[in-house]
Design a protein that fits this description.
Elements lengths: L1 E2 L2 E2 L2 E3 L6 E3 L29 H10 L5
Antiparallel strand pairs: 1-2, 3-4
Length: 65
């Protein structure tokens, strides 16, 4: 949809009268309940690292360059 303030994406339900801006749309969570954590929370020092390197370290466990 093109509005006076610029382009915007809308979502709607074809079975009701619900419609909203995609950034403000309400939805049910995909998971009813989260599973328990498989590891305990730990702090990982990341001095002098870029954010993408930190994410790779924590999520993917990529080897260091």
């Amino acid at each position: 949809m093109i509005a006076d303030t610029g382009e915007d994406a809308l979502v709607y339900c074809p079975n009701s009268d619900y419609a909203a801006n995609i950034e403000l749309a309400e939805a049910w969570p995909l998971l009813v309940e989260r599973v328990a954590a498989s590891k305990t929370l730990t702090k990982t020092p990341t001095p002098a690292r870029a954010l993408c390197d930190v994410a790779a370290l924590l999520v993917c466990r990529w080897p260091k360059r």
